[in-house]
Amino acid sequence: MKINRREFMGFVAGSAALAGLGLRGAAAAPLKSSARIVILGAGAAGTAMANRLAKSLDGAQITIVDARKQHLYQPGFTLIAAGLAAPEYSVTDTRDWLPSSVRLVQEAAAEIDPEGKSVTTVSGTRLPYDFLVLATGLSLDWSGIEGFDLDQVGQNGIGAVYAGPDYALKTWQAMDRFTDKGGVGLFTRPATEMKCAGAPLKYTFLTDDYARKKGTRDKVEIRYAAHSSSLFSVPIVHEKVRMLFDERGFDTVYHHVMKAIDPDRGVATFSTPDGDTEMDFDFINVIPPMRAPAVIRNSPLPWQDKWTDQGWAEVDQYTLQHRRYPEVFAVGDVAGVPKGKTAASVKWQVPVAEAHLLAAIAGKDSDAVYNGYTSCPLITRVGRAMLVEFDYKNNLTPSFPGVIAPLEELWISWLMKEIGLKPTYYAMLRGKA
Amino acid sequence: MKELTFETLLAVFEEMFGAGLFWSLVVACVAIGVLFIYIVVRERGLESRRLVRAELWAPVGAVAAIAFIFFITNSGPSDIGGPVDVIVLLLVGVAGAVGLTILAYLLQSLVGSRRMKPRDGQQG
To answer: ipTM value of the model?
Structure first.
């Protein structure tokens, strides 16, 4: 067989064209609609929803409401607080992620009227809607820790990883000093629902890891105060973490909920079933109670008989559609569902809520179901993590069964966290993942 | 990840490297691959002396690929935790080895083919 250069190039071009056709896939034609859709919040869930709806609908008026100009990649906070990334690692511009067809109202929502189907912003602008998507995220209730102020972060061994990228950096500086000289490291979590319930554990492991690598572990005591009788809501994960905590020599107390801090004395106060008790610290990662934002709590949208102190939106846990106001959906942290205040949950919730919203516009039903999927790359040291994935039923739901063991400390799980997670998150924001 | 489609993967890689760099890398890989196949087809097989020389670069490629992945991540050999980690490490090494071998073969073919041919007495 003789082949000349031109024939060969023809063969290559033909193959590439065929491959290109294969890539395109069968995208559904956009649904024509003049519906007014208001999305509250331009975080992970709101932005992903805006991008998906902009592609799925033709002619709809999509408005997204968020006062924050910065988009925060929150899974990066742990890496910043571990000295592995700069604060800028987590910060981008909110507007950069939004399609041009979506109107961004850069102010906070002040009031929601689900009866009159409108949202009013702080400046008094009224935004009437046919469909409302709640994607506000949650509020960190720092006032829920008596004596605490964000100004304290970085001093007296006080850290607050959740407070934002700059506070995560200050937390790292405090943790770095602490692991240099030793003392008591105190780690807690709130008794409310919280975002990324694995993060308090990760930071405990990371502090231990730094002390070991610096050779100061014998001068460091690590104490973990769990709010309930378990370290993680999924029993099988709790048992694994308990074993790791024992192995690493952490002291664990249960049913301890932090309520106050005295920065000068280096003492935190906990409420326990036996009354209040104090614990000393030389370093602490303060994690406050978490609640739905006031605009949700002060509306008729929260559950009336559950989480009454926290105010999560009353949605069906499988469809994310509001149980009393069917034109309202909630995705992300604000959704009142049993699990899943993580970006991984958002990735699974948004397509389900979108399917039901589009079905409602088309006057049809959708059989899309959110099963509670959540994932947590539970870092156990710099360089290793456990890829923990689970659902509403506390079943482990590994994405790579038989390949990546969910309860094994693995390098590949760390690689996913460090290299794979952020691009996947950003692809999700664009509605592509 | 029940919907890990090819399109999702492309979107993730575009975010990881930036669309410009990612597609440049894809084009570079495809171009090198196509050129390699072209040369093999044109010469009706692999030229053994060139291949042996190219294979000398394989260990270098393997070590470089593994070193690169440890360099760009906050991890090192001591973080290898289970069988899948060993498999991933081997795959990275194999990718580096094969990649550099192909590249070395290609460069020899492009740069040295004229010089080698008369000595070997081979027909193109």
So the answer is: 0.85
